Amino acid sequence: MANAVVRQNKLHKLVFDPEATLGTFEAPDASSLVIPAENVSFTPSRGTRIISRTSLLDGYAGDVSGAVGTWAWTLGFDSEVHDTDNVQDTLVPYWGKLLVGCGFKAVDNGTTLTFSPTTTEIGNYSAGATTNPAGMSISYLHNNNELSDTAHQARGCTGVATLNMTTGERFMMNFAFNGLVVDDELIKTDDPNISAFGSYAQLQGSPFVVKNMTCTFTDNLTSTGVTVVALNSLTINTGAETPDVTNACGSGDYGFAVSPVFWNSSPTVNFTIADTNSTDDYIFQRFFSGDTFNISVTLTAIGGSGNTIEVSLPSVQFEDVSLGEQNGYSTYTISGKAVRAVGDGTDDALMQIIYTYA
Length: 358
Known about the structure:
Elements: E1 12-18, E2 33-35, E3 37-46, E4 50-51, E5 67-68, E6 72-80, H1 94-100, E7 104-108, E8 112-117, E9 130-131, E10 136-142, E11 150-165, E12 172-181, E13 214-219, E14 224-226, E15 232-237, E16 245-246, E17 256-257, E18 268-274, H2 277-284, E19 292-300, E20 308-326, E21 329-338, E22 352-356
Antiparallel strand pairs: 1-2, 1-10, 3-6, 4-5, 6-12, 7-8, 7-9, 8-22, 10-11, 11-12, 11-15, 13-14, 13-19, 15-18, 16-17, 18-21, 19-20, 20-21, 20-22
């Protein structure tokens, strides 16, 4: 009788490696970085998959068997952001490498790592003083019983990142990747023991927690700082796109090529703050004037390292403001979009994520 024992979800883990050659799978091993991932979705949902032939007339009732079409992976997960430290020109942080897979460029000056959107094409991974966007190989490992372990694997992964900062909670990044099938397999079953795969070196410390933040909101028209009270639920969608590139000529690609990362639209921001005299004057009143605001928030690591992460949006134009209520006081829930001046292509024009590690 076949083994019918159910398998424990807690024993799954998500690991990845940047690709030295874009689209060429980096097989997981003991050095692959383990992502502190939650809410993992790893689904072969892209493409035509099983093509329906229900309209085919053969003189009998019912459907005829479908034809196998194109396949590719979509994978998404939430990840804690840890204080991982860094070594100059090596790009150590796992979340920094994932951002590189989401179309960000990383610049390292020996004190800070600065991530910013870039139109540089996705290419081969090479860390240095400047690390350009690259593809990722991601594996969802199922440590079933170290005898019949399995894995879902994707290569050429590119994605879109969203930053979520809720007061009193962990700083989380959500990643949504597209990827290609590896070795014509949707599930790998020929490696019976993968328990040793994955490095936990970066996960020993605590994640950043959203508290004691330094928050700066400045009206760009008057250079006036706005006092922000009860900032809560700050969400920044980086605004990138990973369109499907169908590829009928590929061998073993199931009809797809690596998805590029395009910045056709800007990062968007949503947050909630308390209704005060300050926010009335500089948020609600100026909503209809088209003014822009400089928004910067900085989190400090737990544990005494002194390392910080700053998220900076130099020019946010508000698009919607609504009144609300929270714990008995009035609030504004605000959404906006990062904008730039015509012809401004500088790295800090739209958004920066700055990790100070020394």
